[in-house]
Amino acid sequence: MSLAPAVLSRLAEIVGDSRVRTDADSLKTWGCDWTKMYAPAPSAIVFPSSIEQVQAVVLLANEAGFAIVPSGGRTGLSAGAVAANGEVVISLDYMNKVLEFIPEDRAVRIQAGVVTEQLQNFAEEQGLYYPVDFASAGSSQLGGNIGTNAGGIKVIKYGMTRNWVLGLKVVTGKGDILELNKDMIKNATGYDLRHLFIGAEGTLGLVVEATMKLERAPRNLQVMVLGTPDFPSVMNVLKAFQARLDLTAFEFFSELSVQLVTEHQGVPRPFDTATPFYALLEFEALSEDMSAQALEIFEHCVAEGWVVDGVLGQSEAQAKNLWRLREDISETIARFTPYKNDISVLIQRVPAFIADIDAIVAAQYPDFRVVWFGHIGDGNLHLNILKPDDLAKEDFFARCKTVNVQVFETVQRYNGSISAEHGVGMTKKPYLTYTRSEVEVAYLKAIKQVFDPNNVMNPGKIFDL
């Protein structure tokens, strides 16, 4: 599908000639996200610089009948930002300003194109902290984070993006501008529409501004990496440390993850001993007593046989390298065209759940390498199947899809989620009913119709109308 010249002219009138791109490189760059399952095929990329311009493009879409795909940092992993069917991509790259700092409320009002790391750095300059953090913080944008309710490595302590959004300004699929919640902590005046847009993946409209809550900066963070003989031991370690310390992070990853990261990223192994799984934990050592407690718990875990070896970061540089063992995994395995599953269950069900999933993987992928990692402190597991070099991408993805039903039937049996933090997009759309009932999906579609009656906003994502 291509746009009529008259429509392209009107887009240029709205945002300026230089802010409408139709060249092949731009279409490919802004028409995709980090997924590789769908070929980008947008008809144009537009770069508005104001809310009024965003609104004008949405109104034109309703009038002229073209679809819109919102684009942020394009770091998504479910094809939620892929324009594969001639859509117009709205990139918020030029709406990237910090608009207002509100110290009394520990809040900051920003445009949706602000990059996560940009917000983190701004908070640090104010002596505060924005805690939602993940490997793509240097390129992901807050509008996209809000659209997918991004999580990351600090959820066990600080929660998801949803927990930090005080207010939103949005342009709905109808072209209305709404100011949601007016940045207040307390506002008991009926439905909180802000939460409909958080996690909606741009299907209801575009987030154009957000007011984000900030927190006091953590002090004297300590990082430990512990090697465990099996996965149940990881859970025992979590329980032991949580009983006595307030953890800011608890991650896990497999030995294959360590092998790949140390080989391709030049990060040193945490210790000489190789173990099947590793736990990375972080906590604030606000006193010497807390550091001593951590070592006591470590010794207890060794005595119980839950930990084979371990290390406590002795410097900021060593702590960063320990974190890189976990944070560099996604970048490292990207070269192997991984097939990703991002699944979650209640923490108490994780050991039995991962055993069942492992059995499916071992039976169905005996010749594939499998990388496990995740935010185990909040029940979120990342299952990554690596493509063999001699297997075509299309054949590899097709084979992985045939096993998805077994994986998601297991997720359903444990009353879990087919997507913990990556969203649904197009890749998880066929499996939505394994997590959401058909009645729930009908309500979701009805909400979509209210905000976007002409289905111009990111159609074909999450569900089909």
UniProtKB/TrEMBL annotation:
InterPro entries referenced in this protein's UniProt entry, alphabetically: FAD-bd_oxidored_4_C, FAD-bd_PCMH, FAD-bd_PCMH-like_sf, FAD-bd_PCMH_sub1, FAD-bd_PCMH_sub2, FAD-linked_Oxase-like_C, FAD-oxidored/transferase_4, Oxid_FAD_bind_N
Enzyme Commission designation: 1.1.99.39
Keywords: FAD, Flavoprotein, Metal-binding, Oxidoreductase, Zinc
Top EC category: oxidoreductase
Cofactor(s) demanded: FAD
One record GO biological process: respiratory electron transport chain
UniProt keyword Zinc, yes or no: yes
Domain of life: Bacteria
Catalysed reactions listed for this entry: (R)-2-hydroxyglutarate + A = 2-oxoglutarate + AH2
GO molecular function: (R)-2-hydroxyglutarate dehydrogenase activity; FAD binding; metal ion binding
Domain FAD-binding PCMH-type: 38-217
Record bears the keyword Metal-binding: yes
Quaternary structure (record): Homodimer.
Family: Belongs to the FAD-binding oxidoreductase/transferase type 4 family.
Protein name: D-2-hydroxyglutarate dehydrogenase
Organism for this UniProt entry: Amnimonas aquatica
